């Protein structure tokens, strides 16, 4: 009789939980299929956490291997399998949306932001699933901690990680948007820094080229100086040579004049 009453209470509780879940899933009545499934996965994950907690408490009080703990363990495993199937469906919905967007081959910032958000949602859902699987294996682990995707990490690293946000909470969307905005600003800063770096590199190359040109001009100026010096020396020699010829002519003229004077004197004396 008691077992029958417990089964009736369990069926009633499941019916009430299902009704409450449907109300939570579509509170505004205009939610899309992806968001509905995301919310359902979030509620299912919370339910699995409660099952794990109940199983751990049963093991602590009744001991492992009892009928109750075995039933709860089976429910946990079944629920995890179901939620993994829902995550696969959620992933397929995102993949199809992304494929349609790429097929159009037309950029749309709003749709791209939505795709980025749905991709983050899928990654978060799978992170929750892996967290649940690890909690189910650990028996009595802290359900409020984020379990890293790499299960081979040491427990010391896992204990220091941040808390995983709830999947059915719309508030984390705002956090993701803020992260995207910050990433966008950082990308812009990075692009500007790259442009500045390119400008600096071009200025450095131009300065190097100008330095080479100046060195070439200096070399040419040195060559011209040597040529001018050689020309000046040659001109000096030429001037000296010309001066010697002038003196010779003057001497000849003076001798001729002197001979003429002597001849005139001699002719006068003879008369």
Descriptive labels:
271 residues; mainly alpha
SSE inventory with pairings:
Blueprint: H1 2-25, H2 33-62, H3 67-104, H4 109-138, H5 155-159, H6 171-270
Biased composition (Basic and acidic residues): 137-152
GO biological process, one term: hypotonic response
Biased composition (Polar residues): 153-162
Number of H- or I-type helical stretches: 6
* Shape annotation: rod-shaped
Q: C-alpha Rg, in Å?
A: 50 Å
- Average residue pLDDT: 75
Number of strands: 0
Main beta-sheet strand count, sense and barrel state: none
Termini separation: 192 Å
What structural category characterises the helix and strand content? mainly alpha
Order of helices and strands: HHHHHH
Low-confidence regions: 140-162
Helix content percent band: over 70%
**What percentage of amino acids are in beta strands?**
under 5%
Organism: Dictyostelium discoideum (Social amoeba)
Protein name: t-SNARE coiled-coil homology domain-containing protein
Keywords: Coiled coil, Membrane, Transmembrane, Transmembrane helix
Summarize the structure.
The protein is mostly helical.
What do these coordinates show?
With 271 residues, the protein is mainly alpha-helical. The chain has a domain at 32-169. 84% of the residues lie in helices and 0% in strands. The protein contains six helices and no strands. Helix 2 (33-62) runs antiparallel to helix 3. It is rod-shaped. It starts with a helix and ends with a helix. Residues 140-162 have low confidence and may be disordered.
């Amino acid at each position: 009789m008691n077992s029958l009453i417990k089964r009736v209470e369990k069926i009633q509780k499941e019916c009430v939980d299902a009704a409450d879940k449907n109300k939570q899933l579509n509170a505004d009545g205009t939610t899309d299929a992806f968001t509905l499934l995301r919310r359902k996965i979030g509620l299912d994950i919370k339910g699995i956490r409660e099952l794990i907690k109940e199983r751990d408490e049963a093991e602590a009080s009744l001991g492992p291997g009892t009928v109750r703990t075995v039933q709860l363990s089976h429910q946990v495993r079944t629920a995890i399998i179901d939620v993994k199937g829902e995550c696969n469906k959620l992933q397929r919905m995102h993949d199809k949306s992304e494929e349609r967007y790429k097929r159009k081959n037309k950029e749309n910032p709003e749709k791209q932001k939505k795709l980025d958000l749905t991709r983050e949602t899928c990654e978060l859902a799978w992170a929750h699933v892996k967290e649940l699987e690890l909690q189910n294996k650990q028996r009595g682990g802290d359900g409020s901690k984020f379990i890293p995707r790499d299960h081979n990490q040491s427990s010391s690293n896992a204990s220091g990680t941040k808390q995983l946000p709830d999947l059915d909470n719309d508030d984390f969307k705002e956090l993701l948007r803020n992260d995207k905005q910050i990433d966008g600003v950082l990308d812009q800063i990075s692009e500007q820094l790259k442009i500045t770096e390119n400008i600096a590199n071009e200025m450095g190359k131009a300065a190097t080229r100008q330095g080479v040109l100046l060195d070439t001009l200096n070399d040419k100026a040195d060559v011209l100086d040597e040529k001018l010096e050689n020309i000046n020396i040659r001109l000096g020699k030429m001037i000296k040579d010309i001066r010697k010829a002038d003196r010779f002519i003057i001497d000849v003229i003076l001798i001729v004049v002197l001979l003429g004077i002597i001849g005139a004197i001699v002719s006068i004396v003879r008369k």
